[in-house]
Amino acid sequence: MVEELTFATPEEKGPLLSKVIDPLSFKMLKIDGETMVSGMSQPAINIYADAMLFWALNGNLSAYNSNIWKEPLPVVTNPANALKCAAEKGKCQCALGGVVYYGAKRTDGTLNTDKAYTFAEADHSSFTTCRDETFGFDPLPGQKKYCFCDEFQRRDASEYEKCANLGGDCTCAVGGTVLMAVEDERGDLDLSRPNHEIDAELKGVVKCSREVFGEIAPGENVKCYCDAHEESGYNYCEPSEQLVGCFADDADTPDFELLIDPHVFSPEHCLRQVFDNYFKYGGIKNGKECWGSNLKIGKYG
């Protein structure tokens, strides 16, 4: 695709562009790539195509779905490092520069590499939708799938400052990110061991616990670290909430549009994610699942 677009005539750029942006345009605007391109002028198509080609050649394809480009990922990664971040159709929180795997899980919650799986760059928003369309195909038709995030390759220890021991409270300003990772014998952050990062909370305090971050390095000496300057996926406007009520639901056709996070640790955590994903309505189901929707809710009473 890179070679085709590089040598394409102006007339050829439109059809090529529609193929590349199709997943992104449908995700963001609910229209296919062909429809979007048909409404663009030729100068706009040329500018858009040149911009996408620039990012493709510079190894940053996350916004444009590298499966369409058919180019190798710019990151060499080990699936053994990946941690479960979402069930199928949910949202996987994985920072830009990380890699998201899509496949079956083992009984211990890790990616089952004995079965077919696929992977792609983490979305530029830090939230990757865990579904076939994101990865370009279904690696295990008819089987339950999950997403797994590997952020190992993008870490820089100098960016982080230790903020809490396990069980304590990490103070990290909104807009920053909090990392749970292993501390080595010298007291330094060891990024070669399992770790996971989440956005700082609005209240500025994150509980440094495995209930919040997942089962990171069981039995190891883990701590929490704050990166106050890391760009996050936050919408910086403050979310506002108005309690609508409690509602019945149907497991097969849920009232809400999307499962954002299968396991949140507080209503505030869910509200933050609902707001960051630009949903009008948010709710918690089964005590832990965070759902979002822009459609009116309450159809089951």
Describe this structure in words.
- The strands form five sheets. Strands 7, 9, 10, 11 and 13 form a five-stranded antiparallel β-sheet that branches.
- The model is unreliable at 59-74 and 230-237 (pLDDT under 50).
- The protein is 23% helix and 23% strand.
- With 301 residues, the chain is an alpha+beta fold.
Total of helices: 8
Task: Report helical residue fraction.
Answer: 10-25%
Q: Assess the beta-strand content as a share of residues.
A: 15-25%
* Total beta strand runs: 16
Average pLDDT metric: 76
Count up the domains.
4
> Can you write the helix and strand succession as a string?
HHHHHEEEEEHEEEEEEEHEEHEE
Which stretches of 5+ consecutive residues score pLDDT under 50?
59-74, 230-237
Cα gyration radius (Å)? 20 Å
What is the end-to-end distance? 50 Å
Structural class: alpha+beta
Shape: globular
Q: How would a crystallographer describe the biggest sheet? A: 5 strands, antiparallel
Which key features would you list for this structure?
alpha+beta; five-stranded antiparallel sheet; 23% helix
Put the structure in a nutshell:
It contains 8 helices and 16 strands. By secondary structure, it is of the alpha+beta class. The chain has 4 domains: 68 residues, no CATH class; 75 residues, no CATH class; 71 residues, no CATH class; 66 residues, no CATH class.
Q: What topology does this entry show?
A:
Blueprint: H1 2-6, H2 10-29, H3 33-38, H4 42-57, H5 66-69, E1 83-87, E2 91-93, E3 99-103, E4 118-121, E5 127-129, H6 132-135, E6 146-150, E7 161-165, E8 169-171, E9 177-183, E10 189-190, E11 196-199, E12 205-207, H7 210-213, E13 222-227, E14 258-261, H8 267-276, E15 281-285, E16 289-293
Antiparallel strand pairs: 1-6, 2-5, 3-4, 3-6, 7-13, 8-12, 9-10, 9-11, 9-13, 14-16, 15-16
